[in-house]
Amino acid sequence: MSRMSRRTLLRSMAVGGAAVSAPALLTACSTSSGDSDVSNAGKDLAPWPTHKPARGPEPDLAPTEAGVQAGYTAYPADLTRSVSRTPGDGSTVKVMSVSFGTPPKPVSANRFWAAVEKALGVKIEYTIISQADYQKKMATVMAGDADTLPDIMNVFSGFVLPREAEFVRRRSEDLTPFLSGDAIADYPNLANIPTHAWRDMGRIGGRIHGIPLERPLPGSTLWLNQGMFTDAGMTEGWTADDFAAVARKATAGRAYALGAAAGSLFGNAVHAAAHNAPLEWAVTGDGTFEPGWADERFKAAIAFQARLRKDGSYHPDATSVSQIDLTTLYYNGTVGSMQDGFGAYLPKYRESKGKLTPAAALPYSVGGEPGGIVAARRSFGHTVLKKAKKERIELLLRILDYLAAPFGSQEWELVHHGVEGIHFTRGADGSPQATKLGEVENNTNLPWKYLAEGPQVLFVPGMPDAVRALHAWQREVVPHAVRNASFGLQSATKNARGATLKALVDDTVTGIVAGRLPLSEWDATVKKWRQRGGDRMADEFAKDYAANR
């Protein structure tokens, strides 16, 4: 039986980095007429799966309906069992997902991999795609033969993949009969996924084609080295001018207040939200969709970032450094901040190891208005299944049900921390503490969490004060979250041309902030964006929005 070696894994990643553009490859990936209409307008909509919360330990800090997460200041003493039997049948299952870690050791030398395989009752062949290679590798996969597709595939929402929805509808199993309404009761951990995650994943042609990876309401967050910013004069209730002044003061020698990674537009999302600019799309009371790009507040955010760059507050490699390398610069004190998902709080606290205190930044105010934060798509991505016979689909869903085990269960502990005594020991409060092996064999480098995951909670092993700080931050900022109104909706124009049009916008934002283009270039770019498909997107989103109301 063929198993993936470390060399094979690296070679598959190298193929993803081949010099070929994603739009070009996917244009060649034809769709039949029956698969090209992915809109939900005029369709009979499949009911969302019936949400049934799992039973588990009561949180120490209560969640709210508005989107504040449950917080646990201590690890549950008595872990529950959420799966009654081994889900697998001994067969081989091919899976694929994005990764933000380093390539794992092969299964023959990876006790974490082997332990999860044993619990699942299957052999797992895992193709792991680095975030930097994801778009190109996925273009190759999507343009390939149906027979070569993995059984289980993560579709990461961090990028616009041309004709993604058409690909999913054509090549993946329609999961509506298995998951819609009360049918999901056969998979109780999947039934524990809240409805907001399914909504933000969205239907395709009225049907359910995936399983969402639920995420908290806060999205892209500015993570600070709290000490560096406090020493430079950071105070609660700061204004945009205060932020700029603190960033200038914190930048000295070889240390820079602001770090940014290639593709992040100098951390544009955080600054746009602080200016309360619509993030891509806003919807009016009558259902009209209006682009955030055309909002003057978005233009003001770009101008503010250009000011920060001109002040010298950004690291000079802000347009070229990778997110992984930027994280290293953050931990070693070279940069005092970085934009990352809110869910990155756990590695931020774990990896800082006392060298710095991570803190989620409170947004600055602009013109007297409290600043907003980025509202995440409540689905980090979704997992789709290769078309197969009913019995095979049920097997794959049982595997995902196991991986989606809730916090406080034995299954969650295995998938997230490995085996006690091998990958972790118990801290004073009973929480898992990684061993040397666990620092290498873990859920970052072997990311089961990007195949399926239960609702996330706030918990930092051995750091109750960190949990309290994060919960308090959420309570303060969640009411000011700025949401992209297009989440969960379909637009044929965006599916076909969204990547190209977004590149037009992104290149202009980066050029203006970097000082290569004048701010006046922005209006011309927005005009081109509208003419080349932006206005059509607005109409299509409005129709899909009306169908889903």
Distance between the termini: 49 Å
Percent helix: 25-40%
| Beta-strand fraction estimate | 5-15%
Identify the quaternary structure here: single chain
> What is the molecular shape?
globular
> Quick one: CATH class of the largest domain?
Alpha Beta
Number of domains: 2
The number of helical elements comes to 20
By CATH, the architecture of the largest domain is named 3-Layer(aba) Sandwich
Describe the structure.
The chain is of the alpha/beta class and 549 residues long. The protein has 2 domains: 6-34 and 86-215 and 380-457, Periplasmic binding protein-like II (D-Maltodextrin-Binding Protein, domain 2, 3-Layer(aba) Sandwich), CATH 3.40.190; 220-374 and 481-489, 3-Layer(aba) Sandwich (D-Maltodextrin-Binding Protein, domain 2). The protein has helices at 6-16, 22-27, 33-36, 111-120, 134-143, 164-171, 176-179, 188-191, 195-201, 226-231, 240-250, 268-274, 296-310, 323-331, 345-352, 390-403, 410-417, 464-477, 492-514, 521-548; strands at residues 92-99, 123-130, 152-156, 211-214, 220-225, 281-283, 289-291, 337-341, 358-360, 373-374, 379-385, 424-426, 432-434, 481-482. The strands form 5 sheets. It has a 5-stranded mixed beta sheet. A 3-stranded antiparallel beta sheet has the order 8-5-9. α12 packs across α13 (296-310) and α13 packs parallel to α19. The longest helix is centred in the last third of the chain and has 28 residues, at 521-548. The radius of gyration is 23 Å and the shape is globular. Residues 1-34 have low confidence and may be disordered.
